[in-house]
């Protein structure tokens, strides 16, 4: 029994001695690793802040995009510090880097749709086809931009509905931005009868446009005969106004022209359909057989 106790004591003493030697041997590496971790953490935060501030000084860089790249710099620095610390203890970092690469590839394949949205979000934030507060139309999605994120874009429709569109959807379709330009041209087409006075109708349309102070004098208001259809002579008026006055002036223009046409006896023909046919052939009545 005493022999077993002595063996345990000796084994414990040997383990403690070995631990002491390892502690002495790796004490410098441990201290260096702790210092490296602290300095790396501090430096990553500083790099992130410097990147964020620097990108905000660049014209056209959005706050969301600046924050995204700042986080990329920070976590890349932390990953580099982590690999460097492992190298201090003799760990083969090449295998770790290969494992991280394989894991990143697997995650990328699993989140392919999400990564497409992120890539599209970065492109939207860099190229800026639209900004917050602008009204856009893609053919399937329309509304005023509320927020542009890395994954999706928030919009509000004219009737007050909230819509969330994936960035990849917006990036892969043509976008019409109704708010980007400061001026817009209004085009109004209306048909009149063939017996009506074309010059009088054009004069009414031109006078209403030129009398509105919100309509620009240069380029000047223009009217012309656009086309001749089966039931009407189609007239067109063009004028330029500011983007903010586009809808108010266009609505008033249509209303004023309709009233003036009615007052001057100018008709607005409705669509007509002409039907042509031949009367049915009626067969003569058959004569009774006994009359023959």
From TrEMBL:
Residues 187-268 form the Mechanosensitive ion channel MscS C-terminal domain. One of its GO terms (molecular function) is mechanosensitive monoatomic ion channel activity. The chain crosses the membrane at residues 26-44, 65-90, 96-127. Keywords: Cell inner membrane, Cell membrane, Ion channel, Ion transport, Membrane, Transmembrane, Transmembrane helix, Transport. One of its GO terms (cellular component) is plasma membrane. It is a multi-pass membrane protein. The keyword Transmembrane helix applies. Residues 273-292 are annotated as: Disordered. Pfam families: MS_channel_1st, MS_channel_1st_1, MS_channel_2nd, MS_channel_3rd. InterPro entries: LSM_dom_sf, MS_channel_1st, MS_channel_C, MSC_TM_helix, MscS_archaea/bacteria_type, MscS_beta-dom_sf, MscS_channel_2nd, MscS_channel_C_sf. Residues 71-112 form the Mechanosensitive ion channel transmembrane helices 2/3 domain. SUPFAM superfamilies: Mechanosensitive channel protein MscS (YggB), C-terminal domain, Mechanosensitive channel protein MscS (YggB), transmembrane region, Sm-like ribonucleoproteins. Mechanosensitive channel that participates in the regulation of osmotic pressure changes within the cell, opening in response to stretch forces in the membrane lipid bilayer, without the need for other proteins. Contributes to normal resistance to hypoosmotic shock. Forms an ion channel of 1.0 nanosiemens conductance with a slight preference for anions. Homoheptamer. This is Small-conductance mechanosensitive channel.
